[in-house]
Task: structure prediction
Amino acid sequence: MKTTHPGNKVLHLLTLVTLLTLSQSAYSQQDPLYAGYLNNPLLINPAYSGINNNLTVFAGYRSQWAGFEGSPNTMYAGGSMSIWQNKMAAGLVVVNDKIGENTNTQVTGTYAYKLPINAGTTLSFGMQAGFINYKVDPSQLTLQDATDPLFAPINQIKPTLGVGLVLKSDRFHAGTFRSSHDQQFL
Result:
């Protein structure tokens, strides 16, 4: 009877996971960095629209690596409020993110339906729709060949959609979110 060492199973599993990971396409993107997103969760999940049953308005600015040319700068503003007996909510979020020659501006409207589970616990389903404007300005770069077609200006506007889910109680918040703009510009 042949027995296998437990370490061999781990090695086989690690090899399989590595091969599956390497076989997937890889893409790179820079998502905006939000200072204080814990205080403004609507930035990352539309299900947080009207989650506290009050009018909520927020704004912020973040400059990372100040003093470095082309460093990331993010500005954002938005708000949401409950409507229709606190069962629904609507909101708006505007984000401008600039990194070097790349600028992304996103405007989204949000909607959430809130379902009370029990006293103090709410399940919120959220959706967002809007647009994102992606710009690349190669004039901000120092190029050896300014006629290189790979460095042509880009100015694209595309729709963006997202859905989210939040479970909120007096003791915790848990949620998930998925956006359609993750791979739009690749």
